[in-house]
Amino acid sequence: MTDPLADRDLAADALHRVNAAAGPYLDSLASRRVYDAGAASLLTTLGGDLPERGLGTVAAVERLLGVGTAAGTASSGPRFFHFVTGGATPAALAGDWTAALLDQNSFARASSAFGTEAETVVLDWLRTLVGLPSGWGGALVTSATFANFTSLGCATHWWGERHGADPVRDGLAGLPRMPVLSGGYVHSSARKALQMLGHGREAVEVFAADGAGRVDLDAMARRLERLGGTPAVIIANAGEVNAGDFDPLDKLADLARDHGAWLHVDGAFGLFAALSPRSAHLVRGIERADSIAADAHKWLNVPYESGFALVREPERLGSAFGMPGAAYLPGPQDPGGGYGLYGPESSRRARALPIWATLAAYGREGYRAMVERHLDLAQYLARRVDESDDLERLAEVPLCIVCFRVRPPGVPEGELDELNRRVGAALLADGRVFAGTTVYDGRVALRPAIVNWRTTEPDVDLFLQVVRELARA
Q: 380, 360 in Cβ contact below 8 A?
């Protein structure tokens, strides 16, 4: 029998095995494929029937390490340009191991004063990092989707108050539909948040001025005027995923002020443009928002799952996400209360620890240097594309995403979409670098995002080399 109690003396041994594997794995990130199709067959060794008699601690950990270090996607490496995925800085990785080791339940101060205090500090550091005034509060959550959910949950509470109702207590029945307005950059995670909140994912009214999705401010203003003072929610987008473009936050803040609307900013990765004087103008006006959603596991480069919501009126978090009392649990106002009552999750790991570790280790200057390096790399890639006769850039590069397509001389326009789809699929199958396709203004394109702290010019050069090889294949 392999009762875990019998293996209690092997816990340190198992962790030593992980530590021994960590050095070679981390060292390999500079040269290994992002995805190794040849190792995919190892995934089958994870399956089979649930064992009646377990392998034991060390054997199970060794199998997991053997499969994961070979067949896992090296998304923490320097050539993962897909989605918008950061890596994990050395301090953040160690902070995450610390979180696992200590296994705190950061539901409340009563369950973990350490976890609660770390989260309080981290939220204030994040607020300061992106230039928000004092008084803002927030909560750490799992992702930008849940950061949008948390922020829009507060907006729903605000909207219900304007109708003399309490949707937290009584639900949405009997209330009109909450008007939600956005430009064409609105992300699917915001729609998913509205879906989970009961408003419906099609609740968003989109006001786009062009095929790329730029917001039509005049059309949005006319819609707000027709609402005649009915409370509405505006979703602004700071860093859209295809080209890294921004909605004009200041102008949307003006609309929200003039029409009494709630302004929510989805800044999943673009919020960190605030770190550099070269890009801070993109988030001008963000301090006028009512709520902001972002991900630390994107451009801040901490491990998954590390989203966060920031709210101008933090007391709304307790109103929107407090839970019915139970005799053994502290309430929101109790000295033993905490963040489990200010967001969607009750039981919560101490996800503040990797964020605390990385901000303490590198500070504002270190993160400014990283952001500016990525801005430089994006401009470098854009220049390389512009200098090529077989590539075509499709959008400006305000931040860290370069949207372009393969366009070899002589290939008819009608065949370019299919060619770029093939190149995108081949990139993922080849595995030396990782970047997927999107559709930008009706055209299939590649959209490498540069947000990993390890990425340098040779990684960008290899990316272009592989793109060209696969386009010719």
A: no
